[in-house]
Amino acid sequence: MKGARDLLADPAIVHVVGCYTSSSRKEILPILEKRDALLWYPSHYEGFETSENVVYSGAAPNQHIVPLAKYLLGQSRRRGWLVGSNYVWAWENNRILREALGIAGGSVMGERYVPVGETDLRDIARQIILDRPDFVFTTLIGSSLFAFLDDLRRLAEAAGLDQAVDIPIASCSLSEAELPLIGRVAAGHLSSSVYFSTVETPENRRFTEAWNARCLGLGHASADAEATYVAVHLLARAIERAGSDGFEAVREAVRGIHFTAPQGEIEVDAMNVHCTLHPRIGVSRDDGTFDIVWESGEPVSPDPYLTWTQDSEFRIAAATHLKAVP
Amino acid sequence: MKNVVLKNFRNWTALIVQDDTPGRDSLARTLVNLGLVVRFALPRVTEAGEFTGVDIAFIDLDEAEGAVFDAAAAAGIPMIALVGSETPSRLGKAVRARITSHIQKPVRSSGVFTALFLAANENMRRAEITKEEATLKRRLAGRRTLVRAILTLMTRWGIDDQEAYGRLRRDAMEKRLTIEDVARAVLEPAEDEADPIDRLPDGTGGITKGPVRGLSIRGDQE
């Protein structure tokens, strides 16, 4: 916060690429508004915001949690257990998933929040093994996540279960950046993301080669890396289009801009200044990458307030699987 | 219905009653992002007809005249005040108009969803309360009639008050009428004793002697 204030004290700085958590973004928004500065926010987030001072290059909820909910329902996984770190990312994703399950005739068997940084999650893991849900959805972050993945796998093994198959853990934030830190239990987890390092496009081949040459120590290229790369390119294009780097000129110029991103063709929505992106579901591997098991046939327009997401989509997703069973 | 929370305002029509200002554009853009259809009206020329087909109104508290609020209130829609001067004269106007929510001027995108969310839900609750109030008033008005109907049935059949009330209630449920309506029918003067509708198939009389068709409470003890 102090860093942001110091940085923005320099009147020459109009554009800032950064922020990861929503709370950090919300904290610096008033400074951006006062200063007529633009934040290029390169992270998936929980939505419900369309600030005039932010360009959002990461996924909105209809591009991460909604496709994940539909994927799980399509796999006939209707009974979920929700475990999260206690902050807005978890609350909002859990709300959306809970409603999706409710609409499709599924249920939430348990829902638990722990303080950020909590690493004693064995009681929760034990309860989950007893309840045997169809899946676990987690919004845990950092060390809490690593401890939980380890506990659940260990307890599942002890109970004679194949955790990755019997009780898969799904999330909208597990990325290539975390996999090397998880260790022995890194493989077999579901993640919903618009980008994985294993996306097969010419742009991504170029991007991952450049990434691997310089940053492989941070793990393979992740959604956050790609969204940041995209944000910088959008900024450059918008400045070029505007013929100026001024706040208003650039903010107006960025609307509707197209870009060939590593994930595929993307476009900045002219109204809400989020991006049209390519939702995918990956399963983590022990080499620190993801196998892509599903991807949206069409790029998906951003719907930050979930205004256009229909209840029927979840019912259809749940019914599609039933039809497919012989 | 009590626990329903409105969350999606897709295809709602919003009327922004405000002069053309940069804040108005910001408000309109955020509302469009939220899926609403936006219309504009100037704060001094708004007529009652402007609110036809409108689901929610955003009204500039500094500029709009009292008639604008009256027209919105008559339409029964939630009203959100766009507040500039935080003075008792302006705020008093908001209170008298029973404003449901507000946004501070100049309007930025943050805060719009909250104001819309609170106003829409508060207005729905108020509509429920108004409906309940009307029901309670009707019940209250019918209480004297109900007491007289119970006394009449007690005398007619020599039953106690609970039995009399039970019969009225049963008949109301069967006929899908309010108990007050049934009570009123019991007390109607017997003008048309021969009305076949008021007779039961077995020839015994119904308890309602009046001309209200279809009303009959079985006179078991006759």
TrEMBL record, chain A:
Name this protein carries in UniProt: Branched-chain amino acid transport system substrate-binding protein
Q: Which Pfam families match?
A: Peripla_BP_5
- According to its UniProt entry, this protein's organism is Palleronia aestuarii
Which InterPro entries does the entry link to?
Peripla_BP_I (IPR028082)
From TrEMBL, chain B:
Q: Which InterPro entries match?
A: AmiR_N, ANTAR, CheY-like_superfamily, Sig_transdc_resp-reg_antiterm, WH-like_DNA-bd_sf
In this chain, the stretch annotated as Disordered covers 193-222
Spell out the SMART domains in the cross-references: ANTAR (SM01012)
Q: Which Gene3D superfamilies match?
A: 3.40.50.2300, Winged helix-like DNA-binding domain superfamily/Winged helix DNA-binding domain (1.10.10.10)
Signal sequence coordinates: none
Q: Highest taxon of the source?
A: Bacteria
Q: Which residues form the ANTAR domain?
A: 126-187
List the GO molecular function terms.
RNA binding
Stated name of the protein: AmiR/NasT family two-component response regulator
Query: Taxonomic lineage per UniProt?
Result: Bacteria, Pseudomonadati, Pseudomonadota, Alphaproteobacteria, Rhodobacterales
